[in-house]
Design a protein that fits this description.
CATH superfamily of the largest domain: Aldehyde Dehydrogenase, Chain A, domain 1
Strand order of the largest sheet: 14-15-16-13-12-17-18
CATH class of the largest domain: Alpha Beta
CATH topology of the largest domain: Aldehyde Dehydrogenase, Chain A, domain 1
CATH architecture of the largest domain: 3-Layer(aba) Sandwich
Radius of gyration: 22 Å
Strand content: 15-25%
Number of helices: 16
Number of domains: 2
Helix content: 25-40%
Oligomer: single chain
Structural class: alpha/beta
Largest sheet: 7 strands, mixed
Mean pLDDT: 97
């Protein structure tokens, strides 16, 4: 895989930057595969100035033109699927099969979803009594995105923002920035005018904070950890700009006593371990009736054993490396913490997977006898670690599910009517019932410390719009 030309993209020009560069490592081999410039506040100033200069004309661009650009972006992602997948695998270690089916394919669907929303008659204006209520683009948007879904999260922000008539400055994660660089070329080929989209590489403390604080940025859309989200909110509050946050999660999978246990456990393990567990909506807590607990543990152990760890470029690999040494150490630290607090290690553990000598790999790990207040049941681990907890009745299951600081996602398995009723009681932004499939037009976002705001479809588009009331 040839690495894309790397640099900032400011006003349509590739800017290599001056001074320090940031190495991009392949987490499976620990080898340097590329580098990007370490952006500075001056780079941020230049990118924001370009976005501000381009805003008025782009906001006035006919809707049909913006729709066509969004459609071309979706098509461009689809056409470059294999290149995108290979880049994701190289820079963040996602197994190539998952990278192809999810990382490189879902963004094309979410982009197409925005096109469908706009073509179906989105209400840009409406009459309310003697008032005309109109929706207008919020302005210059700073999009700050994470490494775990390096294209998916970028597209979830940039495409609806552009479709709404906003201009954008993107700061991708410095750990996995190469996919964003590819995306910049897709936008150029789709006809996005110079300055409407800008890309600045760099770290959160340097570039991210400069964007959040910038007086000419009207909105910050951030995806990342809850800790970093607090900082973004704090910095952005000084200029009273809009902030949308998609943060951490500790999602529960409630298996009811009338569920298909085999299906529920199998899909629950998949919901925890996909992308190596490095998903904010990972189903990291499996809640099982006491009467089915031992059987569920046996099923879970058998399922976890099938998640082989290895070379992410191999089509048969299901768990690749963690994205970095720091992330591997974080996950291993939580495994040690679980053991120290008395949870029972059923499968896996903190040791390096057998036969693997380099790379940031972690064994898929299953814990039993987990108490709801244990650290591994309360804090986001962001790795292939599943906790199984017993419950006595439905009310207790809901209480355990809701008893964390997070509320991003969840799942329920059981008879349809009961499962739907339980889903409505969960304090979380998205719930899958009996393996309900991903919907690129449905809202995604969190309650509590999982953030605010929503992404995808009409709900994601509305995040980038201001509402004006004109009385007549």
């Amino acid at each position: 895989m040839a690495a894309p030309a790397t640099g900032h993209v400011i006003a349509g020009t590739l800017v290599e930057g001056e001074g320090r560069r940031i190495d991009v490592l392949n987490p499976a081999t620990e080898e340097v595969i590329a580098s990007v410039p370490a952006g500075t506040p001056a780079d941020v100033d230049a990118a924001v100035a370009a976005a501000r200069s381009a805003f008025e004309q782009w906001a006035a661009t006919p809707l049909e033109r913006r729709i066509e650009v969004a459609r071309r972006i979706s098509e461009g992602i689809a056409q470059r699927r294999d290149e995108i997948a290979a880049t994701v695998t190289a820079e963040m270690g996602s197994p190539i099969k998952f990278a192809t089916q999810v990382h490189a394919s879902v963004p094309a669907a979410t982009s197409a979803g925005i096109v469908e929303v706009l073509e179906s008659g989105f209400p840009w204006s409406e009459e309310v009594g003697n008032s005309l209520v109109v929706r207008e683009p919020v302005g210059v948007v700073a999009a700050i995105t994470p490494w775990n879904y390096p294209l998916h999260q970028v597209v979830a922000k940039v495409v609806p923002a552009l479709a709404a008539g906003c201009t954008v400055v993107l700061k991708p994660s410095e750990i996995a920035p190469l996919t964003a660089q590819l995306f910049a070329s897709v936008l150029a080929e789709a006809g996005v005018p110079d300055g409407v989209f800008n890309l600045v590489h760099g770290t959160g403390p340097e570039v991210g904070e400069a964007l959040a604080a910038h007086p000419d940025v009207d909105m910050v859309s951030f995806t990342g950890s809850t800790r970093a989200g607090r900082r973004v909110s704090e910095v952005a509050s000084q200029t009273i700009k809009r902030v949308a946050l998609e943060l951490g999660g500790k999602s529960a999978n409630i298996i009811l006593d009338d569920a298909d246990l085999v299906k529920a456990v199998k899909l629950g393990v998949a919901g925890c371990f996909s992308n190596g567990g490095q998903s904010c909506n990972a189903l990291s807590r499996m809640l099982v009736p006491e009467s089915h607990y031992e059987q569920a543990l046996e099923l879970a152990a058998a399922a976890v054993a099938k998640y082989n760890v290895g070379d992410p470029t191999d089509e048969t690999t299901r768990i690749g490396p963690m994205v970095s040494a720091a992330q591997r150490d974080r996950v291993v630290g939580y495994i040690h913490k679980g053991i120290e607090e008395g949870a029972k290690l059923v499968v896996g553990g903190p040791e390096r997977p057998e036969g693997i000598e380099r790379g940031y790999f972690v064994q898929p790990t299953l814990f039993a006898d987990v108490e709801p207040e244990m650290t591994i049941a309360q804090e986001e681990i962001f790795g292939p670690v599943l906790s199984v907890l017993p419950y006595s009745d439905e009310d207790e299951a809901v209480r355990i599910a809701n008893a964390t600081n997070y509320g991003l996602a969840g799942a329920v398995f059981g008879s349809d009517e009961r499962a739907l009723a339980v889903a409505k009681r969960m304090r979380t932004g998205q719930v899958d019932v009996n393996g309900g499939r991903f919907n690129p037009k449905a809202p995604f976002g969190g309650y509590k410390q999982s953030g605010n705001g929503r992404e995808f479809g009409r709900y994601g588009l509305e995040e980038f719009l201001e509402i004006k009331s004109i009385q007549r």
